[in-house]
Each structure stands twice: as structure tokens, then as C-alpha cells.
Amino acid sequence: MIRGSCLCGGVSFRIRRATGPFELCHCSRCRKASGSAFVAGLGVARQDFELLAGRELIRYFEAPIRNAPPAYRTAFCSRCGSPVPDVASDADWFEVPAGLLDDDPGTKPDKHTFVDVKSPWYMITDQLPQLTQDALIAQRQSKKPA
């Protein structure tokens, strides 16, 4: 089991296993929500996630739609402000902010996303794939059922 919690410990959870993807997102909304150069988001299947405490502390912010749905939605602890998993989502999988993990997830980041809009002061120095917004859109469209 992989344990995780927010800064104050009020929201805590555990993950049976991390399924990925493990993305480092450089989009402007992720940067603003995290206050950092990027968000490290670890994909987790809903059936592998268990919220242990703090559901009543979780609040949501849904930013307006920019180019196309869906809107950008963030979840955070109302006590300490830490980003937390969006447990209200009905998706089969969702991203867990990797900085919340107390244990090693047993996997490493596999790509950078939205590198065309990354912070100008941050330089990517690793060898992970770097995907632009256009590359991500093309990738998602190719996975749509016919």
C-alpha cells in the first residue's frame, strides 16, 4: 500500500497500486494551482484508491473552460490548502498529486506535458518525452473509439 496525505494530515488516503501515467504537467493552470514549475500527477485507478479521512475538508475549484471541455477542476484541503485527489470525480481513474505520497509509488515520471507553455525560467534537463499541447490533442483523438 502507498499512503498519502495533505500538509496538515486531515485528508489521508491509500493506494493499492499506481497504474500511471505519471506525468509532469507544465500547463499554466497546473503551475498556478501548485505554485510551482509543474504538477507531478500519478494516475490511479478508482478501485485502487481509498480515502481514509478528510472528505469533509475537500473543496473544489472549477476554472472556466478555455478552448474546449472539460473545465479545469482542482481539489484542495480547506484546512491547509494542499492539492488533494478529486475523490468526487466519477472517472475510472484520476490523478493523485505525487507530492502528497508518503511512500514510494514504485514508479517514476514517464513524460512532460504541455512543454510548449512551460515556465520560461524552468529548464527540463532529463530525457523523458516532452509533449506539446498539439501532440496531446492528437494522442487523445487517436484513442477515441470509432
What this model shows, in words?
This protein is mostly beta strands and 146 residues long. It has one domain (2-142): Metal Binding Protein, Guanine Nucleotide Exchange Factor, Chain A. The mean pLDDT is 90. Strands 8-4-3-9-10 form a five-stranded mixed sheet. It contains two helices and ten strands, in the order βββαβββββββα. It has helices spanning 28-34, 133-142, and strands spanning 2-5, 12-15, 22-25, 39-45, 49-53, 58-63, 72-77, 93-97, 111-113, 130-131. Strand 1 (2-5) and strand 2 form a beta hairpin. The chain is 12% helix and 32% strand.
Main traits of this protein?
single chain; Metal Binding Protein, Guanine Nucleotide Exchange Factor, Chain A; five-stranded mixed sheet; 12% helix; 32% strand; 146 residues; three-stranded antiparallel sheet; 10 strands; mainly beta
CATH class: Mainly Beta
- Integer-rounded radius of gyration: 15 Å
Task: Characterize the main sheet.
Answer: 5 strands, mixed
Number of domains: 1
